Amino acid sequence: MTVPHADQPIVVSGAPRGAADAGVVLLHGRGATAQGVTNLAAPLYRHGVTFFAPEAERSRWYPYAFDQPRERNEPHLSGALARVDAALSRARDAGLPAERVLLFGFSQGACLACEYAARHPRRFGGVVALSGGLLGPVIQSDEHAGSLEDTPVFLGVGADDDRVPVARVRDTAEAFEALDADVTTTVYDGVGHEVTDDEFDRANALLNGILAG
Question: Which domain of life is it from (predicted)?
């Protein structure tokens, strides 16, 4: 059986191989594309940063809502996590270990970034999850094992987001704190399920921290 997403491309842009000091893995939302999230991330572009954007099959990482039982979203979820791993492998091949890579996702992509980091805890350059959180009906802070080793994590969500409840984002923050992450959570009034300029400012600050390290 073909693994979902396995034959989809990874769009690479920004600094060429050998000239990058930091990387960003960009994870698009449902109904979007790798090129679309690459365009969305334009405010993050700067000298010395390479971007790796895997594409989801049929523009969705998994078929059902993020708060459904995880097994209901299989085998798509496992295939999606494997594509995040493949993007990080491309970064390593370019001389960028995980601690110099920012995981950045919006909506379904944010859920995927959270799920990958929680399942593969280690020091990352950072995690930015906008309008998303960990998957499953209920999240418990002791559900995952390991340490994110003070990885900075930024979680942003609209107070009136009609797809991602604020409570899920706060539960995700607790789970990351239990994994030794340095978590910042911001709830924005009146933005719905959208990305804000302030969220890009937070992501830029994390990226600057990687470049300065």
Answer: Archaea
